[in-house]
Automatic annotation (TrEMBL):
This is Proline dehydrogenase. Converts proline to delta-1-pyrroline-5-carboxylate. It comes from Adineta ricciae. InterPro entries: FAD-linked_oxidoreductase-like, Proline_DH_dom, Proline_oxidase. Signal peptide: none annotated. GO terms for molecular function: FAD binding; proline dehydrogenase activity. Pathway: Amino-acid degradation; L-proline degradation into L-glutamate; L-glutamate from L-proline: step 1/2. Pfam families: Pro_dh. Its cofactor is FAD. It catalyses: L-proline + a quinone = (S)-1-pyrroline-5-carboxylate + a quinol + H(+).
Amino acid sequence: MLSKLIRRNQSSSVVFIQQCMRSSVLNPSRTNDEIRFDSITTAYGYKSKYELYRGWAVFKLCSYTSLVNRLTQLLNISRTILGRSVFESIMRSTLYGHFVAGTDKSELKPIVERLSQHGVKLILDYSMESDVATDHLVTTAQSNHSIYDENLLKSLKNVQTASELSGSSAITAIKFTAFISPDVLQKLNQAVEQHPSDQQSLFELASKSSLISKHELIEIEHFIQRINRIVQEVKQHQGRVFIDAEQSYFQTAIHKLVLELQELYNRDRIIVYNTYQCYRKITLKTIQNDLARAKTKGFSIGFKLVRGAYMDQERKRAVELNTNDPIHPNFAATTQCYHQAFKEILKDAKNHPNQFHVFVASHNEDTVKFALRTMDEMNVKRNDGLVAFATLFGMCDYLTFPLAAVGYDAYKLAPYGPIDRLLPYLTRRAQENRAIFAKAEKDRQLHYKALRERN
Ligand SMILES: Cc1cc2nc3c(=O)[nH]c(=O)nc-3n(C[C@H](O)[C@H](O)[C@H](O)COP(=O)(O)OP(=O)(O)OC[C@H]3O[C@@H](n4cnc5c(N)ncnc54)[C@H](O)[C@@H]3O)c2cc1C
């Protein structure tokens, strides 16, 4: 019954998309001031009626705080009581269906094609991550390297899939915590923080540190080899890779390794992107240092600017350990850091052609408008290849699609993979949409408006 409904509505979606294309939704002659971030035709033209209904229902569900707070328990209980196949079909009709692009290449392909008709590209993220406190399964398996080697194979496959689906615009995203035990990564982080050095590599620092055992050093060596193997695969497929930023107790080591990779691989073009969390007090200084280092040493940097996803956890940890809170005191300070960082990167990108590129990875409409205004002020054109925009799959299409429609480089970051693997990600998405209710509310209302127009 459900699958019939999906099929019927997907075919009506195709007709609708064709109508939209005929009425020339793509309009590159619009000025930045004329871009409308409330156009339901542009934002949701690619969605079927069923998908619009599902989107509306998901945002409605996310607005019930008590439900979202207990989501992890609810999902676990439902899976046990309902059994795998019923649970999966409910997930496909709700959270998973809305926020995840599919399980494999065959499910991703039609989505890539539909989005590309609207000028929007997909960044593929085969979901894998772990954390010291939460991922007990991975932590206890730390002596067993096979899980990280398995993740390496999945990542290589992800790079190949992205290349097959998107060709030279292929981008994949990875998290380093999928390739090393979180405990060892945390120790490595401490080692780098104890003896910060631009002259010594991450491995050299680790090998001299009294914090790292011989066994752990071997694990670190394998970790660095795995990451290099992934970047080589990306290079071979002429793609690009985003390295995600994670918790601050990993991030100093992550950042150091990404810079080393950039120095090695970002020579003829940008392959490796680093992520900068603007909620951290040190971020603006870090960006300024990285820009200076790249200019001195002659390598390129891809910047992905985000606000940061682990704020509650970081603050709680700072209180527990009685250390300084690494996060800006308020949202306005984070935003100021984001906007200042964007300005400084753009200035250098303009003055040093082909050396710097920046992704505005944000759902914040004011930040997107700020970026557009700054580009106008600095006389940077949308097709100069200096700036791109990205939002998460299932969120804020009302930003991404209008940008793509006027010729900006616009992307959706799409997680994919088996349902079980994505449950933690889905809980985070629901929680984020609860936290940023005003934005989710706009998404919900626009879904509703689009649905009404289709009737
Ligand atoms: C393409 C893409 C890639 C991403 N990759 C990463 C990644 O690698 N690592 C990562 O950590 N995150 C990543 N994120 C998530 C991102 O960091 C944010 O959590 C998310 O996008 C919400 O921020 P926003 O800019 O979209 O805007 P908004 O929705 O306006 O941000 C609102 C949020 O800002 C938070 N906030 C930030 N600083 C403060 C503060 N000082 N005081 C109070 N509230 C504050 C609030 O919690 C609130 O929920 C990514 C996001 C996107 C779109």
